[in-house]
Amino acid sequence: MLNPGYLIEDSFDVLVAGAGVTGICAALAAARQGARTVLLEPRPFIGGNAATGLCIHTYKTKDGRQVVHGLAQEIVDRLIEQGGAVGHVPLPDGYVHSVTPVDADLFRMETTAMLAREGVTILYNTALIDADARDGRVDRVLVCSKSRLGYLKAKVFVDATGDADLATRAGAPVRTGWAGSGAMQPVSMMMRAVSVDNAKACAALAEKPPAWARKKGVAEPIPVYFHGTFTRWNAILRELGVYDHDDHQFWTNTVWPDQLNFNGSRMANIDGNDPLALSRATVELTAQLQKLGAFLRANVDGFQRASFLPNAFVGVRETRNVTGLYELNENDIRIGAKFHDTVGQGCFPVDIHHPDGKSQEHIDIGGDGAYDIPYRTLVPKGTENLLVAGRCISVSNYAHGATRNMAPCMTTGEAAGIAAALSARGGNACADLPMNKLQPALLAAGVFLGEAADERRAA
Ligand SMILES: Cc1cc2nc3c(=O)[nH]c(=O)nc-3n(C[C@H](O)[C@H](O)[C@H](O)COP(=O)(O)OP(=O)(O)OC[C@H]3O[C@@H](n4cnc5c(N)ncnc54)[C@H](O)[C@@H]3O)c2cc1C
């Protein structure tokens, strides 16, 4: 019989579950505060959805004011040095001011090195499967590693699993999918196309002006982001059985002149918490992308010599969100709301792929184009030493359409990491962490809290 002992005997100050963009930033931030930090990741690599080849959306408001800094900016700066990013590139006539493509592999390699430098213990192939919690206090978590089950102990826990797995197991209140129906946004699998002539592909596919960037060592500017629909090719795509609908939308990004990351697949009615459903989606979306690759090679200029590599796993947009001390809502986004307990700002519009899998909705950020993210959205109701960050923070379904994107995930990850380290050191409940301790620590780390944050704090 299984009789799990401790996987590692020592107690950590901070345990972060999940090493997507959020968990990476949380672990880095906690370690930089001097906390002994452990980071759990079921896959044999870090990055989560960021490992699939995406732009980090987004750093600047629609009028071009940068409101996302801190670790989110530091990582891009480091990637620019490595040739893995080209900065924040203006998108003419776009739904955002600028886009920030990053190479997924260089992102993984650079952030792995950063975590190692900060002394974070990364446990790969290790999933959190349960939590021992009483009266809102998490004592230890049960993990399944490659070869055995085991417990890990920490003073403060950060749930960066995207799915709120830790918070759920600890008994925190959560909402699954859309309020009322439980429906979830469709899942998609990314695909990398290599040996592409990007300029030709862009001329053939882009329906709006692309984002062009110059890169050291590359003679010509590169179209690093463009999007469109396959309307021209509806008949062929139907005949090939790629999609069950017309006018499929796609988005591409890259930092290379001869590769493209393709977001052009979709499957509705998949519960991202259900391993059977996710496995079925993996099989079907891989097949969908193999067909899409064959279509592009045969029909679209620039892809004649290309090879197509569907990602190894399915990207999940929405599963669970915790109910925290505050739930950020649609109105907050529509007015660009400001809060006394801000831990950073978000500026990417609400982007909802409707659960029916057929339509998409955008809502611009109101006010000055940025909303504050209140600390209370990171604190699950009724818990003492637990924070959430990233995709699963406390937001309504509409607000989630904005906060699920990677820049806000990195911002909440960094904030949760710092808050967890301060709570572990001070021995106070996360909910009681004073803002006059947290906000100066965030500012010292380079996080932007908003121009008027000082006045709001003083009020
Ligand atoms: C197809 C698609 C396209 C997108 N496009 C963009 C885009 O262009 N720009 C953008 O900014 N955002 C985009 N997003 C959204 C964005 O990528 C994600 O919402 C964001 O990366 C989530 O980050 P996260 O770290 O919170 O979660 P994840 O990236 O999901 O990371 C969670 C991590 O936790 C791990 N984990 C899960 N369960 C457990 C457990 N039980 N124990 C331990 N670890 C666990 C996972 O393995 C994973 O590594 C897109 C999303 C999808 C699906």
Note the quaternary state here. Answer: single chain
Q: Would you identify the CATH architecture of the largest domain? A: 3-Layer(bba) Sandwich
Radius of gyration: 21 Å
Q: Output the CATH topology of the largest domain.
A: FAD/NAD(P)-binding domain
Bin the strand percentage.
Answer: 15-25%
Q: On the 0-100 scale, what is the average pLDDT?
A: 95
Total number of beta strands = 21
The overall number of domains is 2
Structural class: alpha+beta
Q: How many distinct helices?
A: 12
Verbal overview:
The protein has twelve helices and 21 strands. The protein has two domains: 309 residues, FAD/NAD(P)-binding domain (3-Layer(bba) Sandwich); 121 residues, no CATH class. It is of the alpha+beta class. Strands 1, 2, 5, 6, 7, 8 and 21 form a seven-stranded mixed beta sheet that branches. It has a six-stranded antiparallel beta sheet with strand order 11-12-13-14-10-15, covered by helices on one side. The protein is globular. Flavin-adenine dinucleotide binds next to α1, β6 and α10.
Keywords for this entry:
459 residues, FAD/NAD(P)-binding domain, 2 domains
Question: What is this entry, summarized?
Answer:
The chain is an alpha+beta fold and 459 residues long. 29% of the residues lie in helices and 23% in strands. The chain contains twelve helices and 21 strands.
